[in-house]
Amino acid sequence: MPLRRICLLITFAIVTVFWHLTPGGASPSTPDTRPRIVAFGDSLTAGIGVPAEESYPAQLQRSLDALGYSYRVVNAGVSGDTTAGGLRRVPWILTNKPDVVILELGANDGLRGLSVDQTRHNLREIIQRLQEAGVGVVLAGMKLPPNYGQDYLARFEGIYPSLAKEYRLPLIPFFLEGVGGSSSLNQADGIHPTAKGYALVVEQVLKILGPLLKLPESQK
Predict the structure, then answer these.
(1) Backbone phi, psi, residue 188, to 5°
(2) Exactly one of 151, 184, 189, 218 is catalytic; which is it?
(3) pLDDT digits (tens, 9 = 90+) for 102-153
(4) Is residue 140 a contact partner of residue 107, using CB atoms and an 8 Å limit?
(5) Is the pTM of this model over 0.70?
(6) Which of 79, 96, 162, 179 is the most buried (most CB within 10 A)?
(7) What are the pLDDT digits (tens) for 153-209?
(8) Does the annotation mark 65 as catalytic?
(9) Is 121 noted as a catalytic residue in this protein?
(10) What is the DSSP letter of 218?
(11) What's the chain's Rg over C-alpha atoms?
């Protein structure tokens, strides 16, 4: 039998198997049309050090599902990202067509002692571009360890409430509230939460995010 015919028969067999494995013969890549919530951040969003299903976006997805909210949560966390890196990623974030973005950036800027003014500028640019595209923004506040000096700490931590007021954004006062500094809720590095820590992060996020979301008519 000619080689070309053998290849065609193998291809047909594979396609047939996948067709039967898909309920009703439907396309295995049926699009998810739920409105999107994009979790936009650094390693704290990416979930470094925990299984993917225990990251905060994955746990947020499960919580929303349990509460009856029909939204898809997209994890757009990049480990090591700064506000400058986040600003460069805005066009990609917008390709996801989000309804809401949870903006969690700035911790790496602070830990590296970068310019507070530049961090503020980058976050302002990110917020403006998202809002211009009609995206709702929830801003996650950050804090730093006390060894960075009171002046730097005050200026850095003041970025978030200031921007929230300027752009009328819902603000999570401190993304790691109740988790930061706890040895039992953080991994060995003392920075990144454990799965249990991320569960508490989701509780903080939901307090601010929940009122912005729409329940299906059947749930009202």
Answers:
(1) -60, -25
(2) 189
(3) 999 999 999 999 999 999 999 999 999 999 999 999 999 999 988 889 999 9
(4) no
(5) yes
(6) 179
(7) 999 999 999 999 999 999 999 999 999 989 999 999 999 999 999 999 999 999 999
(8) no
(9) no
(10) G
(11) 21
